[in-house]
Amino acid sequence: MHYPNGKKYTAHTSSSLPLKVNQPVSTFANRGMNLEKLLNLSNQWYLDHHMAVVYKKPTPIQVVKVDYPKRSQAKITEAYYRQASTTDYNGVYKSYYIDFEAKQTNLKTRFSLNNFHPHQIRHMGRCQKQGGITFAILHFTPLGETYLYPYDSLKEDWSAFEDHQVASIPLKKIQKEGYLIPSCGFPALDYLSALDQYLQSFNHNSK
């Protein structure tokens, strides 16, 4: 088979086409995507099984420019993500209001406190003062381990961080004061089982 100009047609197969590989961009958002996806799947599983109602908070957006191609329509043409003012997730479990931040790290022996922001720590403290249950979910990617870390422990670490005494939380401290979250498939991350253990300790210490 030939083209009209006489040039022979060559069929392109998958082996003859160059492979295009997209290299992932290393950003805080991308690094957190895997953990976020697991938590979202877990939350949907909890919701479907009537165990808890927990949702991911939407990231606020600053709209800069809006076009109106039609009178009845508005099209956002320029917008930016703003820094979230609170934490990642909130909801209700066993009549408790729960509020937590989810973070992950590529380190093996410690968790950098630079991953947190002052407004997140303040928000968790305010929620806990009103009777809510607040904590952080910390995932160590190289170890494949995820922990529920209570706010009281995080607050202690943060105070030391602000005083320039520490820069990170040792894994051993997280293992001692936190609760290992099972990764059992259904749900993807069963953090409610770890939360049950924390609630037992929390209620015992509150008496």
UniProtKB/TrEMBL annotation:
Enumerate the UniProt keywords alphabetically.
Answer: Cytoplasm, DNA damage, DNA recombination, DNA repair, Endonuclease, Hydrolase, Magnesium, Metal-binding, Nuclease
UniProt-recorded Gene Ontology molecular function terms: crossover junction DNA endonuclease activity; magnesium ion binding; nucleic acid binding
Where in or outside the cell?
Cytoplasm
* Cofactor binding summary note: Binds 1 Mg(2+) ion per subunit.
Q: What is its EC number?
A: 3.1.21.10
Catalytic activities: Endonucleolytic cleavage at a junction such as a reciprocal single-stranded crossover between two homologous DNA duplexes (Holliday junction)
- Which amino acid positions bind Mg(2+), per UniProt? 86, 88, 101, 120
Q: Name one GO cellular component term.
A: cytoplasm
**GO BP terms:** chromosome segregation; DNA recombination; DNA repair
Q: Which HAMAP family does the record match to this protein? A: RecU
Which family, according to the similarity comment?
A: Belongs to the RecU family.
Its function, per the record, reads: Endonuclease that resolves Holliday junction intermediates in genetic recombination. Cleaves mobile four-strand junctions by introducing symmetrical nicks in paired strands. Promotes annealing of linear ssDNA with homologous dsDNA. Required for DNA repair, homologous recombination and chromosome segregation.
Q: What is this protein called?
A: Holliday junction resolvase RecU
Q: What species is given as this protein's source?
A: Aerococcus christensenii
